[in-house]
């Protein structure tokens, strides 16, 4: 029976349970479709440590070579390592990963040459249409001359490129605990950190796609408990956690306290603006802290606010020529990394900033963490539209209150704001609130939740 592609082709990638929702024969069709839609003569493919990844990756390669396309396989890699290969080699790329999803899941993140994103509006819809057609009518005719498959190791080149973008040679020696969550950080961190003035304390570096220690999603507080404890035990300068495909990084300070990704965004933005002579555009999504645009302006830059989601960030990075972009989900995007996201480069910036001054990380990030935030709070609702309308009605017309609908509903005043966004895949509304102090934030948060939850 043909697979239901509406269940696995998402806004930005392919993702589902293997083999229930998709399998190697389907991966082969995706490879053929990717080859046709990109029109490329050659592509690059990488994969994570999940048990199903090597087979799915090789099936995708078979589909592409049947269409006459040459394939470079880089094997085990992080998602940002695949983006590096796409950028450095000038080839469209496909990464087999389901990021932080449980072991039975897998997926494909695809990009055009130079790590340009492939999403619903930039090729993914056409890829899906071809796969659906071929599921019904049979595989496409093979090319007269099949493509070749070659292996290439890009890890050392990827590590060297990242180190060329951040100067760590003269920093004070640091002790860093790194939790790879049994994901691809365990593969990339030892090579990237090699030779740096960093005493590395590794946690869960063994590659294991069954995630035996904890889910590889550092944004969930329960998944950084081990890291927090180890930082305190080791009297380390900081802790860093990566997600499953190691494209996101999360930081804890010397006390084991989480550092807001908005504070990391502001810190890296200040450093990148300094590197670019105090000029440049910095992208931030609308649920990052107000501290981000403030810091950008203070450092001579121009902040640009976007919707949530990496396709919007990358599109705006390309349109505006931005030097850096950050999201509160701990995705960090760099002009010098083909506008793609790399948590590893953000981590190197944090190490460089910390090692270039005398104080602890908690004091360093305090300058960038100026407000009280609620974090993201999800509420299950019967009617997303009706709840959003109720919020709009409750605040519209209030003195000093502005409302905008760039992404969901953002309600703001001089000393607080909150945003409510509907989930695209579940009957949820997502609330983020921020204010100048904890008491005001809690008041605004609870007021919004009362309307959301009826």
Number of domains: 4
> Helix coverage percent of residues?
25-40%
Query: Compute the gyration radius: what is it?
Result: 22 Å
CATH C-level label of the largest domain: Alpha Beta
Number of strands: 22
Pfam families: PGM_PMM_I, PGM_PMM_II, PGM_PMM_III, PGM_PMM_IV
Domain Alpha-D-phosphohexomutase alpha/beta/alpha: 7-134, 157-256, 264-371
Keywords: Isomerase, Magnesium, Metal-binding, Phosphoprotein
GO molecular function: intramolecular phosphotransferase activity; metal ion binding
What is the fold's blueprint, element by element?
Layout: E1 14-17, H1 24-38, E2 42-47, H2 53-66, E3 70-76, H3 79-89, E4 93-96, E5 105-112, E6 116-117, H4 124-137, E7 149-151, H5 155-165, E8 174-179, H6 185-193, E9 198-203, H7 225-234, E10 238-242, E11 249-252, E12 258-259, H8 261-275, E13 281-285, H9 291-298, E14 302-306, H10 310-320, E15 324-326, E16 332-334, H11 343-355, H12 361-366, E17 372-373, E18 377-380, H13 384-395, E19 402-404, E20 409-412, E21 416-422, E22 428-435, H14 438-452
Parallel strand pairs: 2-3, 2-4, 3-7, 8-9, 8-10, 13-14, 13-15
Antiparallel strand pairs: 1-5, 4-5, 5-6, 10-11, 11-12, 15-16, 17-22, 18-22, 19-20, 20-21, 21-22
Helix pairs in contact: 1-2, 1-4, 5-6, 8-9, 8-11
